[in-house]
Amino acid sequence: MNSASRIRIDGRGGSPTPYLEYLESVMIGATAAPALELLEITKSFPGVRALDGVSFDVLPGEIHALVGKNGAGKSTLMHILTGLYAPDSGEIRVQGQPVEHMTTALAKRLGIALVAQHANFVPALTVAENVFAGAMPTRRGGFIDWPGLRREAAMRLGRFGLNVDVERPMESLSVAERQMIEIARALFADATVVILDEPTAPLPKHEVQMLFDFVRRQRDDGASFIYISHYLEEVFELADRVTVLRNGQVAGAAPIDALSQPDLIRLISGTDVERFQRPRRATVGAPVMTIAGLTRVGAYQDVRLTLHAGEVVGLTGLEGSGPGSLARGLFGLEPMGTGTVTLDGAPYRGTDPGKALANGVAYLPRDRHGLGIVAIRSVRDNASLSVLGRLTNRLGFVDGARERDLVQGYIDLLAIKTPRMSTPIEDLSGGNQQKVVVAKLAATEPRVLLLDEPTQGVDVQAKVEILRIVDELTRRGVAVAIVSDELHELTDMCDRIVVFYRGRITREFHKGSPEMTPERVLDAIEGGMMETTDAVA
Amino acid sequence: MRWRRHIPFVLDHLIWLILLGVFLFFASQTDKFLTPINITNILSAAAVLGVLVVAQTFVLITGNFDLSQESTLGLAALFGLWLIVPALAPYWGGGILLSPYLAIVAILGMGIAIGYVIGALITYGKMNNFIVTLAFLLILRGLMLAFTQGNATSGLNLPEADVFYFLGHENFPVPWLGNVPIAVPAMLLVFLAGHIILNHRRFGRDLYAIGGNRQAAIASGIDANRRIRQVYMVSGLLAALAGLMLAGRVASIQVNLGDGYIFTIFAAAVIGGVSLQGGRGTMLGALGGVLLLSTIDRGLNLMRVSVFWIQVIQGLIILIAMFIDAQRVRFRAPVEGDSATVPGSAPQPIEQEPT
Q: pTM of the predicted model, to two decimals?
């Protein structure tokens, strides 16, 4: 920690506690002492040893990545660090000082700040108000000093290289900007270490870069970060050091330069799991869905696309360039727009999800918590949600035995890890939740399967299992479209990749062609094939 | 540590333990409690409340409220009476002299119609359910007052009203208990039907999904708005049925028939574990809530506790119920995210098919 990020700007916030003063005095002497240490942490839950002798530390001015599958123990470790859970044994040291009994309040005072995926803001309030939430500068009589507030907020953010209009409402900022402001807020509140929990999952590509540049700058100024992510490429890009958790133990810890990506994957999964490479199938069949010139103003324009039986088509592009909207439009979650779509030769319109499913068009949403699962209901209820109508007997009662058979079949097929099918789905890891969503869609026996970022926030193994079941579905003649910006995943999975740029299809890649590489696709995504865009514009 | 595993189960069924405890407590305090007449009283008081709570439970599970039930109840009963009695003072009748059987059909139809209008305003009109049903609570009660000019109507001693008596007034003999109003088994039947619908009909299962996550339910192909209209129609229907039962029980239709029921309805549902956030709750739990409130009400009466204190105690019971509910959430999931490491399943690597 250098002085820049520890300057106490706000005199009003109360003088630092004697404890903190003590910590600071200790710190001046020992520059290389870890900002934070967790020693031999063990934590059990009923029937589960969530953490087993885990040690972890963060040095000042370091970005330390914490990776592992869902369920490996990352969240538990962070919950212990932030005082949400008490460890069964082990020690927490903050700047060399052992902390006897960590509570959430103490963690906050010691400067352990968690920046969650969806930043913790009041969206309708301005940036300035959010920056000062809970500690607004006041004038005599308790009135808020608005000009002072705006000035202070702009100055503080400016110190971290953030030049935003502090009078804009928070909700008008991009997600990355909000995250940067939250990080800055943590840093000027004297954060010892900032925990970034999957910060990039909701971000489009270019904002990821913006966020990373910002985090690197703060690191260079002496701030410490714990970076939790499923995106290994980003771990390599950002982190200085990485610790891998597996089944509640440290599977490995090393400076990032000492590892290759396959090394890291091996550490995470414990086996030689590679990416799922879908073999080229000779089973691409008849056209199932034909989109002949579909336009929705502001979303996509003149889309012409045919999905064939047994084929996987990748749809990609920059955030907001069209593919996601197209999938939602075809499913009826958003207006489909004007134009002609035929399904098995008959005219088709995506009017609402119920009709789409009845017509054999299924959609996997990218927002799992918002649209994919009913978190408080059971695995069974979630898996059978879209097919209850088909599981009813002549008297209109849901046939319980058939329902259990169906769900158990998918639990086995997809290796869904759940204690029981009556377990609430929110108790499952993200990857297993997503498998239940896939089961729900597969149960509808779709003709067309639209997958919107199907592996987002899913661990490496679950990803492979999900992609394998998708491949299995294509062998049964389902036409699959995957909306994704995971380029390796697309090149591994797809027979064709269709690139959208500003709402229009600008480029198409075919499997087997030497052109179909992540690099070439990325180039097209970013508008590389301008001659084609010009032609249609 | 092992005992913690059973906490959720115990919390889910705590209502029955509490009911037993309350029973034993009152039985030890007054020897008038464990008497056939008192038990019958508890049950018949629970009958009308029970039917309304079944309806409210349906609505609550979708994450909506229906504050209008008690006014639907009053207006429906009054409307039925108006259909069958002569247009003569001191009665307030339409002089239609409709057959009482048809009148019952009309009453139930009216309940459904009111429910449909409420549901349509909420879904097509995109209006807030709390406010819409609050408005209907006022409008329907106001209509009743306006039509009758605030006068009490008690046409139920007319022979035409005999059929109306039936649900609320007719008894049948039960060993030990003596004469039990048929409203009691009627209420139990409604609960049973509610239970079966919630668990074994697509309709009920859809309601849980809608209350649990409406957007996900829609994205799973459920027509949430249609279900919400239907659930208000069920609520209106059962409110009208409760109106018949209550009118028969008190043998008159006052302009304040059903007034103030809404608080008890919500208390019973919440005590029974039905979540106001939607998506959680069972008919069995709601039945427990109904019986507990009726038992406490009668027991305190027998102990000659003042009416005012009874209200205080009911309020406290609601708070305790909410406290228990909060504990239920706390003990349910050990860890968010990491809890998927279930015993025996975590360490196995998946089999990799060569590709």
A: 0.74
